[in-house]
Amino acid sequence: MSSTPTHLRIHQYAGLQPGPRLLVTSAVHGNEIHGTRAMAEIMRQLDAGELTLRRGTLTLVPIVNPLAHQLNRREGDRNLNRNLRPPVVAQDFEDRIARVLCPLIAQHNGILDLHSFQGNGPAFAMIGPRNNSGELEPFAQEATESALAAALGVTRIVEGWLSTYALGIARRQQRSHDGSRRASLISDPHYGVGTTEYMRSTGGWAITLECGQHLDPNGPEVARLAILRTLVFLGMLDASAVEPHRPAQPPEVLQLHDVIDREDMGDQFAREWASFDAIETGQLIGTRASGEAVLAPGAGRIVFPNVKSQPGTEWFYLARPSDRQLP
């Protein structure tokens, strides 16, 4: 029987000239390993002298959640990429990771967090809010995130994560729950905060790159090129280290605006949805166990439809075109 992991493996390359401090993470969800494989190749190239770090500090964490990775599933005891903060008292394995991960994040200027997704579709990036001084997610790094996301080579960029979560959590708080730790976590106002949101709370910038479907054979190369393009963007590698991204057209930018929870395991989708499938106003998305139809409130896209979601957690998201301008 495998024992519970007791450490995180962290690799760091310190340039001899001062510069940005970049953190790259993968397997925050244990079965999402495109970034894990990409980092192995990046480290090989650095160690062999095929890549030269010009300046700054590069920190690589190939497996952020070793318990979930060992179990080959998304979570260990719970979802590490929600409720991420240093715990006062550690109550689960992910809390113990947070004790190490949160200070590590705070030591860096920015994070590239590499993920993958369940359904089919091309890679896409997720970025933070516009510059603002509001209560939910005050931020001043909009220009950096927009420019870097545009340089990564994806055809789609998504914004609006934390503000969308706030809507969903408000609904959850209106529902009664059983008083369990799980129920408390998913209705906590902090629930939408993961690696990138925590980085922004420290004043840094953050990009989530969804590198494709979990088993997409091209995923590790998508992740590797993203790491190299980020390093070039930051001036940490020579531009010759990677082919520049020359898009035929600018990326599509979408804004998440709502998240719909599954209420019962009997809730069923009307069809097999994939992320970014188009939906029309009034279109049937699914049916509740009660027989109630779940209809699209407006035209847009469905994002992260999850047939495996548990009652009380995210079933799917809704997105619409954004007016955000990229460099």
Write up this protein.
The protein folds into two domains: 11-252, Aminopeptidase; 254-321, OB fold (Dihydrolipoamide Acetyltransferase, E2P), CATH 2.40.50.100. The protein has eight helices and 14 strands. The chain has helices at residues 34-48, 66-70, 93-106, 142-151, 161-174, 181-186, 195-201, 219-233; strands at residues 11-14, 21-26, 57-61, 110-117, 124-126, 156-159, 205-213, 252-261, 268-269, 277-279, 284-287, 293-295, 300-303, 314-321. The protein has an eleven-stranded mixed beta sheet with strand order 1-3-2-4-7-5-6-8-14-13-10, sandwiched between helices. Strands 9-11-12 form a three-stranded antiparallel beta sheet, with no helix packed on it. Helix 1 (34-48) crosses helix 8. This is Succinylglutamate desuccinylase/aspartoacylase family protein. It comes from Pelomonas margarita.
CATH superfamily of the largest domain: Zn peptidases
Task: Specify Rg, calculated over alpha carbons.
Answer: 20 Å
The topology string of helices and strands comes to EEHEHHEEHEHHHEHEEEEEEE
Overall number of structural domains: 2
Query: What CATH architecture of the largest domain would you give?
Result: 3-Layer(aba) Sandwich
**Basic shape:** globular
Mean pLDDT over all positions: 93
CATH class label of the largest domain? Alpha Beta
Alpha-beta classification: alpha/beta
**CATH fold-level topology of the largest domain:** Aminopeptidase
The span between the termini is: 52 Å
**Low-confidence residue ranges:** none
* Percentage of β-strand residues: 15-25%
Largest sheet: 11 strands, mixed
Q: What topology, given as strand order, has the largest sheet?
A: 1-3-2-4-7-5-6-8-14-13-10
- Helical content band: 25-40%
Tally of helical segments: 8
Count of DSSP strands: 14
